[in-house]
Amino acid sequence: MPPAEPLILGWEEWVALPGLALPAIKAKVDTGARTSALHAVFIEPFGPAKSRKVRFGVHPIPRRSDVEITCIAPLVDRREVRSSNGEREERYVIETTLSIGEREWPIEITLTNRHMMTYRMLIGRQALGSHILVDPSASFRQPKLGYRMYPEVGARRTR
């Protein structure tokens, strides 16, 4: 079987996390970051030790805390991560499916509060396999999604 054509991303892309019921998130592709990160609030681990999970909220639209999606995912790990400003933070790690354009693949994501950041998600180099090229001079090389995919103001959804 011939190898698939490389997926070319810009430095910012619209992505989906279907396993978390997040149909559209504007993400920054950051090859300088090792791990991917997702904006999360009220992060709560639960369940027995052999099958720990984590419940958390996501405000997928910047400056819109009234739109909140509650997510539940298996807990993979808890790791110390150094942020871009040099601070160390222990974060919960989940694995979920990343969808960009017509392609999907599993990635690990750390959960952290990114409310002050422009992008609700950061895609680090661990999520970028050999099938992906990044064009740092371009934005949105893949199909555009949009925040219209989320419920109206004040609506809540649980996944």
Could you characterize what this model shows?
With 159 residues, the chain is mainly beta. 0% of the residues lie in helices and 52% in strands. The protein has a single domain (7-158), classed as Beta Barrel (Cathepsin D, subunit A, domain 1), CATH 2.40.70. The protein has strands at 7-10, 12-17, 22-29, 36-39, 41-46, 53-58, 68-82, 88-100, 103-112, 121-123, 132-135, 156-158. The strands form two sheets. Strands 2, 3, 4, 5, 6, 7, 8, 9, 10 and 12 form a ten-stranded mixed beta sheet that branches. Strands 1-11 form a two-stranded parallel sheet. Strand 5 and strand 6 (53-58) form a beta hairpin. The chain is globular, with a radius of gyration of 15 Å. The termini are far apart. Residues 153-158 have low confidence and may be disordered.
Describe this structure in a few short sentences.
The protein has strands at 7-10, 12-17, 22-29, 36-39, 41-46, 53-58, 68-82, 88-100, 103-112, 121-123, 132-135, 156-158. The chain has 159 residues and is mainly beta.
The fold-level CATH name is Cathepsin D, subunit A, domain 1
Q: Main β-sheet: number of strands, strand sense, barrel status? A: 10 strands, mixed
State the low-pLDDT regions, or none.
153-158
Counted by DSSP, the helix tally is: 0
Which sequence of SSEs, written as H and E, runs from N to C?
Answer: EEEEEEEEEEEE
- The N- to C-terminal Cα distance equals 36 Å
Derived from helix and strand composition plus strand pairing, the structural class reads: mainly beta
Shape: globular
Beta-strand residue fraction: over 45%
Query: Could you name the CATH homologous superfamily?
Result: Acid Proteases
CATH class membership = Mainly Beta
**What oligomerization state is this entry in?**
single chain
